[in-house]
């Protein structure tokens, strides 16, 4: 059951002042405005977060929760963008595009990782923000840990120079491509249209603009042993691509309730051969333009023995 693609432990950031970030609204077509008052929106997001953590823990996933009390970090609930962890004891820290998102980085998280898990090195790319360069972690890149491929949508949140540098340091092959939604808008993060499990991959191939690149992505996923679950534009709009496979008491695919409802029986049948869906209800948090995958930073490190 153990899978290098499906971590057993995760980091999540508990948001006390959640709102849809005005600094990211221009290029995140998934963002919407809440019709609630700010305080009610924040309270609803906090309740959704706490229930999601409880559901994950009940499923056997080890969840490290950090409270964010800051008022200037509305997207802190999405920590997968500013750091990632990798087998062999490696950690990456990333440069962020929006200035207020740069405030999300917190070194108590990194110190916890060093204390609880075997960390050999931390490579910090965040200094490249001074040159207005960004690579927003596992939002910008969807990583195939088995096939060692970093699938990346070209955008202002995924600089090609940093992508090449990351892939050299962490031994991934970059596969970059342009992607647009049904309205012809650029896709801001790869993980809204794609998620890779142990034996399957969720992806909207229609969003990949270049036909040859589309075939390449499908072929490489299949070469890695993944059966492709080809999602529609409408399903991407329901966050069906924004899912993460985790290992608890058994292998689970964590995704939002909304995303699960959008999947067809034939698509679910492919997923359920390998992992049981774990739906989490996060409709308020989804107004910020991200869903369950964005909320979870997987820990691909070896836990220290007590």
TrEMBL record:
Pfam families assigned: DDAH_eukar (PF19420)
Gene3D superfamilies recorded: L-arginine/glycine Amidinotransferase, Chain A (3.75.10.10)
InterPro entries to which the protein is assigned, alphabetical: Amdntrnsf_FN0238
Top-level taxon of the source organism: Bacteria
Transmembrane segments: none
Protein name: Amidinotransferase
Organism: Cognatishimia maritima
């Amino acid at each position: 059951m153990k899978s290098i693609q499906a971590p057993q432990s995760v980091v999540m950031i508990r948001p006390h002042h959640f709102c849809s970030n005005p600094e990211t609204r221009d290029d995140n077509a998934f963002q919407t405005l809440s019709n609630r008052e700010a305080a009610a929106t924040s309270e609803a997001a906090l309740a959704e977060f706490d229930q999601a953590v409880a559901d994950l823990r009940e499923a056997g996933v080890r969840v490290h929760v950090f409270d964010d009390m800051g008022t200037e970090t509305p997207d802190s609930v999405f920590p997968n963008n500013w750091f990632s962890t990798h087998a062999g004891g490696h950690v990456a820290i990333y440069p962020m595009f929006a200035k207020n998102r740069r405030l999300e980085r917190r070194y108590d998280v990194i110190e916890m990782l060093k204390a609880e898990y075997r960390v050999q090195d931390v490579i910090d790319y965040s200094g490249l923000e001074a040159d207005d360069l960004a690579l927003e972690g596992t939002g910008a890149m969807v990583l195939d840990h088995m096939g060692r491929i970093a699938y990346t949508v070209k955008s202002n949140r995924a600089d090609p120079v940093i992508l090449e540098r990351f892939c050299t340091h962490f031994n991934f092959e970059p596969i970059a491509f342009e992607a647009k939604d049904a309205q012809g808008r650029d896709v801001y993060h790869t993980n809204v249209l794609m998620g890779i499990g142990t034996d399957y991959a969720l992806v909207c191939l229609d969003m990949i603009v270049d036909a040859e690149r589309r075939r390449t992505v499908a072929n490489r996923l299949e070469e890695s042993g993944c059966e492709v679950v080809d999602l529609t534009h409408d399903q991407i709009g329901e966050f069906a691509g924004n899912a993460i496979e985790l290992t608890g008491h058994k292998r689970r695919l964590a995704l939002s309730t909304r995303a699960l409802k959008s999947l067809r029986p034939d698509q679910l049948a492919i997923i359920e051969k390998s992992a049981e869906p774990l739906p989490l209800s996060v409709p308020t948090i989804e107004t910020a333009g991200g869903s369950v995958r964005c909320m979870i930073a997987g820990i691909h490190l070896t836990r220290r023995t007590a």
